[in-house]
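testing teh design pipeline on a random one, pls ignore if ur not involved
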C-alpha cells in the first residue's frame, strides 16, 4: 500500500533515466500488448521532447522504484492526459494504480481542467478493465493511432 514510505516523488527524468527505463521495460515485458521503447534515448524523447510530460514515481520502503506516472497538461483542450502509467508487475492489484490515477485527477482539478484523458491499446484488457473500474469511459476507437497497425481507445473522465 502507499504508506509514508511511498509518497509521490516528482522527478527530472534525465536524472533517473536508468532506473525509470528499467522499470518501464519490466512492466512492458509483463504486459503482452505493451511494447517497450527500443532505447533509453527514445524513451526520454517520448516523455520530454515529444510530449513535455511531468513525471512522478513511488518507491517501496527499501527505496526501490515501484510505480510511475507521466502527465501532460493540455490547457487548450481543458484536459490533463495520463501519458504513461505503470506498476511493477510484482506489485500490481494492490491499489497503486488507483491511487496514482486519483493523484493525477487531483492535479488536473488543481489546474482547473475539466477532464482527464488517456490512450490505451484495445488489446490491453487488464488496463481497459482497470480504467473502466475507476470511472473512465471510452469516447473514441482509433485504428492505427501510433502508426503501428494497432487500435487504441481514447478514455476520458469528467472531473467533478
Ligand atoms: C494498469 C495498471 C497501471 C493498474 O495498476 P494496479 O496497481 O495493478 O491497479 P489497482 O490495484 O489499483 O486496481 C484497481 C482496480 O482496477 C481493476 N483492475 C486492475 N487490474 C486488473 C486486471 N488485471 N484485471 C481486471 N481488473 C483489474 C480492478 O477492479 C481493481 O480493483 P480490485 O483489485 O479491488 O478488484 C497496472 O496493472 C500496470 O502497470 N499495467 C501494465 C502497464 C499498463 O498497461 N499501463 C497502462 C498503459 S495505457
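output:
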Amino acid at each position: 500500500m502507499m504508506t509514508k514510505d511511498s509518497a509521490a516523488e516528482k522527478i527530472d527524468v534525465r536524472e533517473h533515466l536508468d532506473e525509470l527505463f528499467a522499470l518501464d521495460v519490466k512492466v512492458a515485458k509483463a504486459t503482452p500488448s505493451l511494447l517497450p521503447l527500443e532505447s533509453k534515448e527514445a524513451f526520454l524523447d517520448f516523455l520530454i521532447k515529444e510530449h513535455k510530460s511531468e513525471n512522478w514515481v513511488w518507491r517501496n520502503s527499501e527505496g526501490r522504484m515501484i510505480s510511475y506516472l507521466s502527465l501532460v497538461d493540455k490547457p487548450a483542450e481543458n484536459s490533463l492526459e495520463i501519458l504513461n502509467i505503470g506498476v511493477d508487475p510484482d506489485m500490481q492489484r494492490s491499489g497503486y494504480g488507483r491511487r496514482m490515477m486519483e493523484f493525477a485527477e487531483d492535479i488536473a482539478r488543481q489546474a482547473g481542467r475539466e477532464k482527464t484523458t488517456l490512450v490505451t491499446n484495445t488489446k490491453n484488457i487488464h488496463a481497459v478493465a482497470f480504467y473502466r473500474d475507476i470511472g473512465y469511459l471510452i469516447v473514441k476507437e482509433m485504428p492505427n493511432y501510433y502508426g503501428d497497425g494497432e487500435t487504441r481507445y481514447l478514455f476520458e473522465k469528467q472531473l467533478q
